[in-house]
Amino acid sequence: MRARAPLIIAVLCCIITLSALSGCVTTLPGAPTNTNSVTTAAPSSAVTNSSSAANVSKPPTAYRVTIGSTTIYAQVADTFAEREMGLMNRTYLNENAGMLFIFPTREQQSFWMKNMRFPLDIVFITADKHVLQIYQSVPPCTTGQCTLYTSSGPIQYVVEVNAGFCVRNGIASGDPVVIAAGS
Questions:
Q1: 177-181 β-sheet, strand order
Q2: Taking the domains of the chain in order of start, what are their residue ranges?
Q3: N or C terminus of the chain with fewer C-beta within 10 Å?
Q4: Residues 102 and 78 sit within 8 Å (Cβ to Cβ)
Q5: Cα angle: 128, vertex 32, 114; to 5 degrees
């Protein structure tokens, strides 16, 4: 039993630390929460982790997101913890880079800019892969009360890119979106 005590304490410390982190994705009060960490990435595009004894499939971590004729090279956030962390505390984002948030179900989502260090465009994308809405040049939150940026309807994907990216590339509501695994 003594050998398990440090492990139990370490697990409890991790749980407390994770529960104290405030991420960039939040759900409206009264709305169902997205705690399911199942990815919506196509299993056929999964990368195999051969070092595992069970040879478990691991979803890809890089995606190409094409909106209209513009391609974004995106890191994926498809688990609850990854969506909660988002781009927090990063100091920059390359020009054609972004983060793709994949949600397990279609529903209205809200984002905020807590712990962000630079402004972003937030692109809400429907389950049938069209741009629903864009919040342009959203500034970092510098106060204790951060503004929520909420989708106008149910969505399944969000792409965050540098502020002004959508204007510079002519990205608009209604544009078709293609999401493909790989860089």
A1: 131-138, 120-125, 155-162, 97-107, 70-77, 62-67, 177-181
A2: 23-181
A3: N
A4: yes
A5: 85
Residues 89, 23: Cα–Cα separation, whole Å: 10
Positive or negative: CA dihedral 37, 43, 47, 53:
positive
Give the residue among 145, 86, 150 at the shortest CA–CA distance from 118: 86
Superfamily (CATH) of domain 23-181:
Protein of unknown function DUF192 (2.60.120.1140)
pLDDT tens, per residue, the chain with 183 residues = 445 544 444 444 444 333 333 444 444 433 333 333 222 222 222 222 223 333 344 566 899 999 999 999 999 988 898 888 889 888 889 999 999 999 999 999 999 998 899 999 999 999 999 999 999 999 999 988 999 999 999 999 999 999 999 999 999 999 999 999 986
Give the HSE-up count for residue 153: Cα atoms under 13 Å, Cβ half-sphere: 9
